Amino acid sequence: MKKRALISVFYKDGIVELASFLNGAGWEILSTGGTSKYLQENNIPVTDVSAVTGFPECLDGRVKTLHPAVHAGILARRDVQSHVQTLKDLKLSTIDLVCVNLYPFFEKVQAGLSLEETIEFIDIGGPSMLRSAAKNHRDVIVLTDPADYTEVINGLKSDNIPYEFKKRLAGKVFSLTSAYDAAIARFLLDEEYPQFLPLTLKKGQSLRYGENSHQSAALYLHADCTGVFSGMEQLHGKELGYNNIRDLDIAWKAACAFGFCGTEPFGEDDVKNLIPEAAGGGKICCVAVKHNTPCGIALGDTLFEAYEKTYYCDPISIFGGIIACNTTMNASTALKLGELFLEIVAAPDFEDEALEILKKKKNLRILKMKKAPAETHEYTAVDGGLLVQQTDRRLLEKWEVVTKTAPAACDIADMVFGMRAVTFVKSNAIVIVKEQAATGVGGGQVNRIWPATQSLERSAAVMKAVFDVSADTGGNPWKESLPARVLASDAFFPFSDIVEAAAKSGIKAIIQPGGSVNDKLSIEACDKHGIAMVFTGTRHFKH
Questions:
Q1: Count helices and strands in the chain by DSSP H and E runs
Q2: Do the domains 224-368 and 396-535 sit in the same CATH topology, yes or no?
Q3: pLDDT score of 85
Q4: 71-85 pLDDT, tens per residue?
Q5: Model pTM?
Q6: What pLDDT does 468 receive?
Q7: What 3-state DSSP class applies to 179?
Q8: H helix runs in 402-492, sequence order
Q9: 478 in Cβ contact with 309 (< 8 Å)
Q10: Burial class (CB in 10 A: 0-12, 13-18, 19+), 128
Q11: Which of 129, 141, 139, 142 lies closest to 70, judged by CA?
Q12: CA 74, CA 49: separation in Å to the nearest integer?
């Protein structure tokens, strides 16, 4: 009996070669619509599906292959005599190969079409044929990916297509259709946390290894939306690794928290409503990240200034780290970056001269970032499931001065900066701030006093080192020689110990969420030392 293949593809890559081989091998090719026309234009004989079903395409092509003559031919088991007899009785023939790819729903969702327009790109017949063929994969070869065409051709030539290969092709079908259905569900659902969580993840690339060299890893990207990592462009350097991607994610989010390509800084609406005098905090930002936490972050009137402040925060930890900025990389800053060993430099664009300078580092990964982070939810794997939460998008719930001393006007912008910065530091997080730059960063500890002490000591050392050197060189990026004045915390103080440590270091203003049963102790300690303290009502834990 002559074998038959049903071919109906939206994407035509490689299909002429496959169909030509099948035709030459004596197969009958069934097809529909645009695919049929395309094959005939390439001199490949085609039988229209309507000739098999005895029923014309209708409803603007919505109904073509949804017919027993198609699905019975696909689903009939060749080793079950009753199935074979039923086909004979109904005068139907088997279909031995199904090659289908689907309407471009992923792409059309990204295009932002109307609901009615997007719905027309929901494929019904294609997934149905694929699922039928995949269920009956012992008898039917099912193809969804042009990358598999050559292996099928070679197998047919040698009359040897192993069962394991057929099974893998069937698995690829359900992998595709599950993601396709998930994209449709995500598009139609109006629930933040539905009963079943639809995810549409497609492998972007295999990675050399995971966190450690003995762990395998891959990067998966949403197929129905374009995020930061699917939109970026690597201009130079080695492939990104697992740890690179995780660190870059934090670095880019932190840089964009202060504005990017017209987007407002993180929490700017809160600032405008509560402390309008501190609004407009979007400036040029530079961030250094090491081991998934910032080791420096600063704003500046120029990128060079922002980078210098970032560097001085921790000149040791920045070595082997990642630099991200929210503005075009220029030559003067690139020259300074060239003095360091860095893994990645990320920016929305690069001046030609800056790119030439950075490319002198053979392995340096240079990344052109085209989008600001826009994910509304975050996902964390746990054994057997996922934790899902909203992205942290609320900066301040209130601006409550709880001490006798109010913040000085010169400190308010630093307090807002500190609270933005602290959201990207691992809990328990403390950031010391001077002139909208971190001078000490502490976090990732199991109690709050350790990172407070660490960041205060680090800030004092930074200021001393910078001013000692700059006395001769004039290279100090800070305008005043005074110590840092502001301390920002991601959570409340359960005791007065942090205030006492801050007072010894000359801190004049503290910003924290408040909400401890012992808030009074911290307030009294601030009043004793003349420190201003503001409660925001918003905690920013980052575990």
A1: 20, 21
A2: yes
A3: 81
A4: 888 888 888 788 878
A5: 0.88
A6: 67
A7: helix
A8: 409-422, 449-473
A9: yes
A10: middle
A11: 129
A12: 13
In the chain, where the domains are located: 4-188, 224-368, 396-535
In the block, residue with structure tokens 């503001």: 534
CB atoms within 10 A of CB 228: 21
Nearest-5° Cα angle at 333, 331 to 335: 70
Name residues whose C-beta falls within 8 Å of residue 373's C-beta, 6 or more positions apart in sequence: 227, 228, 252, 253, 256
Nearest Cα neighbor of 502 from 454, 536, 535 is 454
pLDDT score for 425: 96
Contact 284, 303 (CB under 8 A): yes
Residue 145 · residue 185 · CB < 8 Å: no
The pLDDT tens digits of the residues spanning 128-166 come to 889 999 999 999 999 999 999 999 999 999 989 999 999
Tokens representing 422 are: 């602290």
529 phi/psi in degrees, rounded to 5? -100, 5
CA distance linking residue 295 with residue 310, whole number of Å: 8
Which residues of the chain are modeled with pLDDT < 50?
A: 471-473
pLDDT of residue 70: 82
Enumerate long-range contacts of 345-348, CB under 8 Å, 24 or more apart: 346/232, 346/248, 346/251, 346/252, 346/255, 346/322, 348/260, 348/261
The rounded distance, in Å, linking the Cα atoms of 143 and 22 is: 14
Tokens 């099928």, located at residue: 152
Pairing of strands 233-236, 365-368: antiparallel
Rounded CA gap, 489 and 536, in Å? 10
For 396-535, CATH gives 3.40.140.20
What's residue 89's pLDDT? 83
- Which residues are known catalytic residues? 135, 291
The CATH class that applies to domain 224-368 reads alpha beta
Alpha helices in 63-218 (DSSP H): 68-75, 81-89, 105-110, 115-119, 125-135, 149-157, 163-188
Q: Where are the alpha helices (DSSP H) in 377-429?
A: 409-422
Among 486, 470, 475, which residue's Cα sits nearest to residue 407?
A: 486
From residue 319, alpha-carbon distances to 57, 156, 290, 342, 369 in Å are: 65, 56, 8, 6, 22
Residue 50 pLDDT: 77
- Per this entry, what is the length of the chain? 543
CATH H-level, domain 4-188: superfamily = Methylglyoxal synthase-like domain (3.40.50.1380)
The span from the CA of 402 to the CA of 410, in Å, is 18
Q: Any residues with CB less than 8 A from the CB of 283 and at least 6 apart, and which?
A: 258, 259, 299, 300, 301, 306, 436
